[in-house]
Amino acid sequence: MAKGYNKGPAMGGGGMMQQLQRMQQQLAEAQAKLAEETVTATAGGGAVKITMTGDQKCREVVIDPELLKDADAEMLQDLMLSAVNMALDQSRELASQRLGPLASGLPF
After folding, report:
1. Which one, out of 11, 28, 83, 89, has a CA that is 20 to 30 A from the CA of 68?
2. Does residue 23 lie in a domain region?
3. How many domains does the chain have?
4. What is the helix (H) or strand (E) element at residue 62, kind and residue range?
5. Structure confidence by residue, pLDDT tens digits, 12-70
């Protein structure tokens, strides 16, 4: 083996593994926190409200009972679709904000 290529723990090579393990732990902690954080999106002036976690799990769907009195199925479907997609976008943005700094520290 050529000189300088044997980077065992005595030569300083163990630091990279420790750094990766620390980053992996930080990533796991950030993901756990994301599972607890929520975002809420509304459609139809608040008639439909979707709450989603930072790891893209739908936590709550609220439909204003007044909407059901006059709404047809197609309108309700459109409002639900819009609110779910907005909540997903917000959830992805939250995840990007929380996980982005960790990913930028990767040595690749």
Report:
1. 89
2. no
3. 1
4. strand 58-63
5. 557 888 888 888 888 888 888 888 999 999 999 999 999 999 988 999 999 999 888 88
* CA neighbours closer than 13 Å in the CB half-sphere of residue 23: 15
Residue 66: how many other CB atoms lie within 10 Å: 9
Question: What's the CATH number where 58 sits?
Answer: 3.30.1310.10
The residue type found at 96 is S
Please count the residues of the chain.
108
Can you list the pairs that 55-58 forms with residues at least 24 positions away whose Cβ atoms lie under 8 Å? 55/31, 55/91, 55/95, 56/88, 56/91, 56/92, 56/95, 58/84, 58/87
The label of the residue with tokens 């139809």 reads 44
In-domain check, residue 62: yes
User: What are the two backbone dihedrals, phi and then psi, of residue 18, each rounded to the nearest 5 degrees?
Assistant: -65, -40
For the whole model, what pTM was predicted?
0.70
**What's the domain range around 64?**
29-95
Structure tokens at 24: 């992996």
